[in-house]
Specification:
Nucleotidyltransferase, domain 5; five-stranded mixed sheet
Length: 143
């Protein structure tokens, strides 16, 4: 099983393909963001083509915050996308970039044997006071 992992950050898009059975990373790449993220995201398909379009069984996205509904990995569906959108206030730049990555990965989907989108949340253990401070700095008046 090969998993494409995508991390859409504020200055670059990092992605790798991991072969789970052989416990190895078979592709690693980074694309700097210079203009619109959609332009850079399209480069992922080009890099995959140059690598011989390796079979991908799953795609995982790094998402900073999934709101109060998602505290663990989840298959990305409309409900999860809605939760990521509603949590934009907690991580405005990162969640918007992650949503762009998720939308782009749907285009890669037809080439996958079994496509599962997983959400990886990294704010699981963040104390509530830090989250509230972050929200207020981003303009939230009610949390």
């Amino acid at each position: 099983m090969k998993i494409l992992v995508i991390n859409c950050g504020s200055s670059s898009i990092k992605f790798s393909i991991f072969d789970i059975e052989n416990n190895e990373q078979v592709l690693k790449s980074e694309i700097k963001i210079f203009s619109e993220i959609e332009n850079e995201l399209e480069q992922i398909s080009e890099i995959l083509k140059k690598a011989g379009n390796p079979p991908i069984n799953a795609i995982a996205h790094r998402v900073i915050h999934g709101g109060n509904k998602f505290h663990d990995s989840a298959i990305i569906n409309d409900e999860v996308i809605s939760a990521i959108k509603s949590a934009i206030i907690f991580a405005p730049q990162h969640n918007l970039l992650a949503l762009a990555g998720i939308a782009m990965a749907k285009k890669i989907g037809p080439t996958c044997h079994r496509l599962q989108f997983s959400i990886l949340l990294f704010i699981k253990q963040c104390p509530t006071t830090q989250l509230l401070t972050r929200c207020r700095k981003n303009g939230a008046t009610r949390v």
